[in-house]
Amino acid sequence: MTTALTREVTAVQNPALGATLLWRFAVGYAEVREQPTPFPLLFLPLPMLFRQEFVNVITGTSRRAAGVRKASGLRAVVDTLRESKHAKQDLLLTLHDEVLDLRQLSLTAFRIAVATRLLTLGEGARAWVVRREPLPSTTPERVRRLVFGAEKLGYWCGSLSMYEVAATLHLAF
Predict the structure, then answer these.
(1) Residue 86 and residue 35: Cα distance in Å, rounded?
(2) CB-CB contact of 20 with 133 (8 Å)
(3) Would you say 49 and 58 are in contact if contact means Cβ atoms under 8 Å apart?
(4) What is the pTM of this model?
(5) Residue 74 near residue 161, CB atoms below 8 Å
(6) Do 171 and 74 meet the contact criterion of CB atoms below 8 Å apart?
(7) Three-state secondary structure along the chain?
(8) Which value, in Å, is the radius of gyration of the alpha carbons in the chain?
(9) Residues 93-136 pLDDT 10s
């Protein structure tokens, strides 16, 4: 029996949306690095962007996170989660497990991104951006918000080494 919650999770956590988010994450990464995205980093966007608390901080719409801008960086997100009035430290503590739990969805999303020629996997296990066009104007606002968050997160990750991303978010790649 399918519940309303199950239908909502399936609608949000779908591989096609995931492919778009991985693509825009790689676009943001390439913007700052001018290099393709290391494949292990592609397991990060979906666990973060499929959690409303992370999206609020990343996109800067929560009251506490209003000052987090593109230039603020990943460390500002972590600081905001640690310092907020109602601390969300548990999000950081469970992120590694979420990355593992959603790795199959991330892989499926990556396959779709490759099949639709958004990304390609190149030498050194790096994801190259194939296309850079903007989203269609008919894209719903809730999807635009996630895409904006994906680009921002990619930009922030691109400004750090993989070691710094892992240390900041308490991950093991």
Answers:
(1) 38
(2) no
(3) yes
(4) 0.86
(5) no
(6) no
(7) CCCHHHHHHHHHCCHHHHHHHHHHHHHHHHHHHCCCEEHHHHHCHHHHHCCHHHHHHHHCCCCCCCCCCCCCCHHHHHHHHHHCCCCCHHHHHHHHHHHHHCHHHHHHHHHHHHHCCCEEEECCCEEEECCCCCCCCCCCHHHHHHHHHHHHHHHHHHCCCHHHHHHHHCCCC
(8) 15
(9) 899 999 999 999 999 999 999 999 999 999 999 999 998 888 88
Distance separating alpha carbons of residues 129 and 35, to the nearest angstrom: 9
Looking up tokens 């992120």 gives: 95
Spatial separation of the C-alpha atoms in residues 112 and 94, rounded to whole Å: 27
